[in-house]
Amino acid sequence: MASLDWIDAAAIWLPAHKYRLDHLLRDPIESCPAFTLALLGLPLDQFVFWERPGPARIRGWAITHGTLDARSWNILRGDEVCFEAYLRNLSPTESQAFEYVREEERSHYARYLDVEPVPFAYRYEITRGAFVARSMDPTWLKAQETCKVQAFEPGRAHDWFEFQGYPAQERAFSVYPRLDGSWLTVDGKIVASVHDGLSMLPFKVPEAFISGIKVAESARGKGACKALLNAFLDRLFHSGKLRAGLFVDVHNEPAKRCYERVGFIKKQLYYKVELEPVKSSS
Known about the structure:
The protein is of the alpha+beta class. It has two domains: about 5-115, Aminopeptidase (3-Layer(aba) Sandwich), CATH 3.40.630; about 125-270, Aminopeptidase (3-Layer(aba) Sandwich), CATH 3.40.630. Helices cover about 30% and strands about 35% of the residues. The chain contains nine helices and twelve strands. Strands 1-2-3-4-5-12-6-11-10-9-8-7 form a twelve-stranded mixed beta sheet, sandwiched between helices. The protein is globular and about 60 Å long. The relative contact order is 0.16.
């Protein structure tokens, strides 16, 4: 018999939930989107765990991202019992979006929601050994006399938030000091940036999640993304990281080409499901 426990996402870091956190850390790259929600501490973000007695106590888990307009963003993992319990109890009056659906999970959504998941994102990975074995091309950096690749500086946090388009008052600003990232500047102006999403964790892991990749329109198509990624990965792998991964939209062809040129290998295709609320007939 499985029990069902809901906890605030931010509570996942507490000692009482260590075994649950350890379960998520089996693949921190895939779980990074859930970790991000847990780190921001938003009041409507919650984990749900299905558990049973015994050593392998966790049967499955999900995370829900609640918003003021009641739209939910979810990741759902587990066996078919978990999917049935979760999907059959969705509120028909709320919008729902399920992302990062694995190939083997598609049939569960078709069975319980009568909807077919659509392609959403690819997961790419690169190992330290594969990266070190490649020869990096610094052509773009050499061509820009005033170009510099620098690690994030706390004193320029607001500049980075402005470049990314984030509001400075956003909750994410509180975790900025922990972010391990790099930006590319030309004449002192940020034209590209990237960071490791897993560096926000309150402890170190041997993997990196490449996130926040953005290139200014003026620098696109010139090799800036490739140059910055090469420099950042070089620093990450020399610091002891063993693997790095990222997600990219299935339709973002320029980004996929950039990552593949750096040496990332396509590992998995994920799907998504979007459900609109049922309108009242009254």
